[in-house]
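User: For my dataset I need records formatted as: sequence, then structure tokens, nothing else. Please produce one.
Assistant:
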Amino acid sequence: MAKDRVIFHIDINHCYAQIEEMKFPALREVPMAVGGHEEKRHGIILAKNDPAKKFDIRTGESLREAREKCPDLLIIPPSYDDYIYYTSLVKDIYRRYSDHVESFGLDEAWVDYTASEALFGDPLKTAVRIQKEVHDEIGLDVSLGMSWNKVFAKLGSDMKKKDGPAVITRQNYRETVWPLPAEDLLYVGPATKRKLRERGITTIGELAVYPRQFLKKAMGIPGEMISVFANGGDTSPVTENGYRSPVKSVGNSMTMVHDVDNLEDLKPVYYVLCESVASRMRDHGMEGDVVSVSLRSSGLEWYGCERKMAEKTDVSGVIFKTAVQLVEELYDFEKPLRAVGVSVSGLRPFSFHRQLNLFVDETAREKERAADLVMDEIREKYGYYSIRRACTAVDDELTAFNVKEEHTVHPVGYFQGRKMMP
């Protein structure tokens, strides 16, 4: 019988807030949270420290809600460059012990220690050593869970914050994992939680024993997936250091600083978004032919549609024209728009060789692409705000944002195209 894998999941505790406390130790003594700017509609709590937790400050709630609980709450704006820098140093420590370290957002990572045990010895002692090295060398505390699969390893790191590594084995998982709320399991969000409760499922154990075929019939593949997770059946690998999944689409979205009630005012916003998408495609050396738009109204209803273009492109103006056509056909502005997005899929490596199209002005398109390239070069050398198109300066408050770089960093997708064993 094959030996079980040894998987660590390591989580930097309240990462953003802890990094701010490391930079400014006095923050440890006051209720503090890292959050966005209310006036720019990014007014949510991203992370909070221990004194703030005593006031029941919660990640994801609005700054207004947090201040109602704690009027003296200190809000620190996020410093993403610092977060990326320090979390990279932390993950370099993980890489001392394995060549399979897979990030799950900035603050979390899985480490496959299976092949390293022969070199570094007992997994539990190594886990404690990793925690100590991160604390001593970087000044940050991390939680660590250990199991034979990634899902239970993550559950373990969530369970133990101060008391050392949590170990979930085939022998103890029913006692350790199954009594936990179903929503503690990876990929059981609010909507899935609601569907499970409709079926009388409130714990991971109840989910584990519920007939899988019924879950699949009611919820599709996600229902089957979480059933596998609850029974410890996840076999997805921890990717090698430096692994990058193939880029399938490139997109950006944003919540606007004020609602927009007509297409003309929305066009400059979409031009900034399309510039960012096109620039990121060029960074990847890709071009695509499927443009998708997403819209959220002031009433929080979502709308979306897509269109396949006649040719693949990485030109911002071409993507913009298609995106605007989609918005015009999709939305009547009966309600103002609060958030918008655009993405391009159907990607392939960029090619200079293409079939000429009698209905496209190839010279004009090449000039547009040349202008994009020049803007990329100028921004790379002198900064994003050193050059901008005149059309984006009509409403500076609405369009003065660098969505390519000044964005919230979200966790990467879990599966990344990898196979899950049923």
